[in-house]
Design a protein that fits this description.
With 96 residues, this protein is α+β, with helices and mostly antiparallel strands. It contains four helices and three strands, in the order ααββαβα. It has helices at residues 22-27, 30-36, 58-67, 79-89; strands at residues 38-42, 47-52, 71-76. The longest helix is centred in the last third of the chain and has 11 residues, at 79-89.
């Protein structure tokens, strides 16, 4: 739907309490999210934040952003933060 952009610094959510995006969870399988270290959190009724690691391929980020119905921002986080977010989004304990 839209290319990812970088959010304003004051809009960055706390990843420990941010709500995973239901649209992301409905579209992306747990295995895909885990493999590519990507998840999304809801920022508003019209925006999601794609949370990735430095190793997440840009082509994956762009493909997900194009498929999500909301406008997507993108930010990088540590691998631990992304894996914890994925575990919460899919209600699975983190195991590496």
């Amino acid at each position: 739907m839209s290319s990812p952009s970088t959010p304003q610094p004051n809009r960055f959510p706390d990843l420990n309490t941010a709500l995973p995006s239901p649209d992301f969870v409905a579209l992306i399988t747990f295995e895909f999210a885990w493999r590519y270290r990507v998840c999304a959190v809801s920022m508003s009724d019209t925006e999601d934040l794609l949370v990735t690691t430095a190793d997440t391929p840009l082509s994956i980020i762009a493909r997900i952003a194009d498929r999500l119905p909301k406008f997507c921002h993108q930010t990088e986080a540590s691998e631990e933060e992304v894996l914890d977010l994925i575990g919460r989004a899919y209600e699975r304990p983190r195991s590496t």
